[in-house]
Amino acid sequence: MRRVCGGRKIANVFSLRRLALVSALLAIPMTQSTTAAQGPANIPTIGVLRVGEPTDFQTDALRQALRDLKYVEGRNIVIEDRWAEGRPARLPELATALVRLRVDVIVAGGVAATRAARQATSTIPVVMLATDPLGAGLIASLARPGGNVTGVATLGSELGAKRLELFKEALPTLSRLAVLHDPTTSQSVLDEVRTAAARLKVEIRILDARVPEDVDGAFRQAVQWRAGALSVLASPFFLSQRVRIARLAVEQRLPTTVPHRTYAEAGGLMSYGPDFRDLNRRAVAFVDKILKGAKPSELPVEQATTFELVVNMKTAKALGLTIPPPLLRRADQIIE
Fold first, then answer.
1. Which residues neighbour 102 within 8 Å (Cβ) at sequence distance 6 or greater?
2. Helix locations, 39-139, DSSP H
3. Which CATH number fits the domain that encloses residue 322?
4. What is the pTM of this model?
5. What 3-state DSSP class applies to 163?
6. Domain range holding 7?
């Protein structure tokens, strides 16, 4: 009987060991799955929300700025890109997707992307690159933005007026100007352009565009109105459409003034605006401070300080235009 009892004890021990082994084996896939979903331990994740497309030049500019601060993707930082591909209406769902991933900070390009991120979360820090964020109601003030949004303002309203002044210098006889406007951006830009146009005695017509198809329609309206030129106001959506805009402008024989260098490189006639490589470096500096514990509400919004005048002489020649030499001498770059 003792042997039988001893056998039962041994069998019970083996059963317990088998049960423990099975439980351990079942637990392994669950642990691996959870780890895979969360990513590498203790590595912060940056969400990037933009209106444009994955080929947008700002992708490289942002990553280079991160590398300059020793953030290497896949080693000590994870980047989750979300692109609306020229469809601003997609931004809210993309912002919500980043929030669900529990990213540590969101970098938002433009007013519409910043607004979408701000509506999706009140706790995850948002670093913006936006035109007139104060006028758009994204922050309480430049010095103390409040909430979870801070970053860099690109002074679109003041630049819109300055850009028009330079354009009038390039085209002294200009009397009718079509203005391509993205309704999702700050309205203060339009106010400055209207004031500058009245001062320069230039009649303007505002043409709204929200999606790629609207751009073609806006050009048709400009031609029907007999516009002498086209001003493209600052907008991440228009940035994503810069090649299309440049092509249509040449086809319709419309000189264009555009927000910054990248548009001119795509074929726009003349650009005046901030250096976006510098803006991305400054945005990454905000990301760095936030990842090290700074609160976005206590980080003053910075304003663009570096501006460039670029003239595309290839486009000027294609349109049969002569750019005044004094203006060319002031240009930071001339594209031949």
1. 45, 124
2. 57-68, 91-100, 111-120
3. 3.40.50.2300
4. 0.79
5. helix
6. 1-37
